[in-house]
Amino acid sequence: MMVATLDSPKPTTAGRSFEARRALGKRVISSGVLILLGITSGLQVMGFTVTGFSGLCLLVAPALFLTATSRGDRLVIGLATIAFAGFIVSSQLNDLSFFDERVIQWASFAIYFVGITVIAGRDLERLFSLAAGIALGSCMYFLTAGLPFASLSSFEELWKYAYAPWITLVGLYVLVRMKVPVHLQAVFLVLLAGTSLVLNFRSHALVCLGSAAFLLVTWLAQGKISRFTQILVVAGIGAGLGTLIPAIARSGIAGEAVKEKTELQDSTGVPAILAGRTESPLSIAAIIDKPIFGWGSADNLTTEVFARGEEIAIGIGFDPNLPFYGFWHLANGATSLHSVLFSSWAEGGVFAAVLPVFLVIAALTVIWNSPRYGIWAAMAVQISVQAGWDLLFSPMSYNLLAAFALLAVVFASRHLPAPGSRRTAVSPAVSETEHDSVVLR
Q1: How far is it between the farthest Cα atoms of the chain?
Q2: Cβ atoms of residues 271 and 317 within 8 Å
Q3: What is the three-class DSSP state of 46?
Q4: pLDDT (mean) for 142-171
Q5: Which of 422, 406, 430 is nearest to 135 (CA)?
Q6: Which residues contact 236 (CB under 8 A, 6 or more apart)?
Q7: Rg of the chain over CA atoms, in angstroms?
Q8: Counting runs of H as helices and runs of E as strands, what totals does the chain give?
Q9: How far, in Å, CA of 179 to CA of 216, rounded?
């Protein structure tokens, strides 16, 4: 049964009983250890699929068989298995090495998911302490190994290509520990959005504003209007921001670099729903040609697929004079699809895409039920919105698999309990004044 209790005003440390001080000490030590465990994600072992933290997760994974798994746990593991198997079949059909990172990525995800589930369980304090550690580990990676294909020097580049999403999570975790209410955490996200807009990282600005909008509307409208109506309000705000932010960018208020990039994307004719990305038509063409088992690697796409991709792009409004080949290839000549979901389907086939599709649905579910996460709602929503964006509009990169696993555990922690569990299918909302007093028994 899940018991949600509201903390009374916190007494001073001196006024606490011995038992209370001991319990607090255990929580502090536990959180510190979990953060340290998460930081091992900054130790790169093999590309974006294997890190020091995934090694730890593999070590503790067998303990999952000693615990009662929920329906959510089994669903995620089952879908990860299907996605991994889909990539294995695709690799054999397309002469791709079994050890290629694309092939093993969803197996790596499954290891992360099982490991995080064993280490943190469904305890939100433990789970988000681990998330903060993974965020710090990601920052450590960029401070040491960095991005192998880019020379990052300016603060703007470092913020955009390395630190922004991770520092956001660390900041929210600190605010929770300072007992800052959720609606003020949302204000922090708005301030970060402004910073990212000035630093030419518009997608992060949109993610932060989207998360803040969900949190603020939930706070203002709780008990007054239905959740569906709240989401419609957020959608309206999102549509408004989708018009306002480009207008601010074009005005030059956010800087000349932002203005030039916005004008360049405007000139391409890319539909707004594609968030400025030009690769989606190529992904669609690749999927249409081999929808079941995929191409193995985007580098296997034929000239006919590229030609069909150009036709699709022009058909939906792209400027026909655009240098599509340049947009669809990286500097090293590799083909870029720039979407975890679409690249999984195009390269691994439909079975490899079932997990990313589910993760998008899980992100939407966590956002819809964000009140269930109490004081941790801002972290839950930010992880969900960022993961949803990355699944649709970003390529796979360092520690994204760990971030997707965090989303899956966040989802499973409050949804689809074990059959016959005394915990109800719909957990009661947790007050945002509750500081980690939710326990599962």
Answers
A1: 75
A2: yes
A3: strand
A4: 82
A5: 406
A6: none
A7: 22
A8: 18, 4
A9: 17
